[in-house]
Request: fold
Amino acid sequence: MISRARQNSKEQPDITPIEDDYIAPAPRVSVQAFCETETTASVVRSAGEDRRLAKAHLSVHMGGMAAAIDAYHKAPTPNVIVLETEGDSDILVGLDELATVCDPGTRVVVIGSASDITPYRELVRRGVNDYVVGPVEAIDVVRSICSLFSASEAIMAGRVIAVVGAKGGVGASTVAHNMAWAIARDLAMDSVVIDLDLAFGTAGLNYNQDPLQGIANAVFSPDRLDTAVVDRLLAKCTDHLSLLAAPASLERVYDFGAEAFDAIFDTLRMTTPCIVLDVPHQWSGWTKRALVGADDILIVAEPDLANLRNAKNMLHMLKSARPNDRVPLYCLNQVGMPKRPEIDARGFAKTVESQPIASISFDSKMFGTAANNGQMIAEISANHRTAKTFLQMARRLTGRGEPKKQQRSLLAPILKKLRAS
Reply:
């Protein structure tokens, strides 16, 4: 039950490595917060709008510890209780009284003040799962609630990376597939590519796969979906990479509700460390939901005016919809196409107010050969600059930094001889 007690990270310099910044979404749980101040109540309400708490039912009440104790004398406790306490109140006495009305298994998060001098071990002893020193921000509340489940339950929470084109035909699928290949092969992360373009998807062609089943079987039978069913639908591309392929068939239309793919994503999150979504260039309820709900987003754009406008609009919308997340990223593709006027990278970056994470040069021979052979760029030429670019992008989007090079000691040859003797 006890996960940890910690102080708000704002009290220390921000030196957290990027790979530790990942926050797994919370499951369907009920959360009730009892706040002392309207400021904290407002922050908790904002946290409830975060995508990672989308499935949680969060309600906010005033009155702090006293109100919580009074409420649970008359009603059952939720999965999580968030309590704000003032510095002059006796937390331990209140927690002891709360324990008499709490149901078994209820998790408790305490938002304290800097003037609190209660030892952490005493809070932990009384069943507090997390302790955060205020003033808090929305992301602090999100992280605290989500970590109660990702840290205490033996459930893998996969990272979802969504890749989408700013315009049709910009090569977003090619970028997604090559990047997923790099994540699986070079970073050795078990990964799944989901081709969400059911009518015209190219993942099967690009990976030289022709599975009989795929994403359509899952999305049209959500009631029978579980990890075993999804595993049977996956086509294995390499030891670490699998594919949930699109049927690429026009025998039926693919009109979906906004939540049509939620069950598939949730099921894969439980078993797969990395899920790469190949999102088609269209704007609908489910594509917007897939992008907003992803952990990281990559927009692929060509250096022209239409892509510039679309990329800027998409970046602005996604930043607004995900205020507590890492900002969405973008890359430029097919740069340097002969005889085509282009907007240079500096001008593109100035307009969208952020730098691209990569610029992929136009190479019709290399990409054409890969597409016709059903291969990735790294399979044709592992040392090609574009293959290295895809690996750099894979590291950036998965939070895996460059591996540290071990410094060779001047005494290493001598030590080696001594060990051999």
About this structure: Residues 1-20 have pLDDT under 50 and may be disordered. The radius of gyration is 25 Å. DSSP finds 17 helices and 13 strands in the chain.
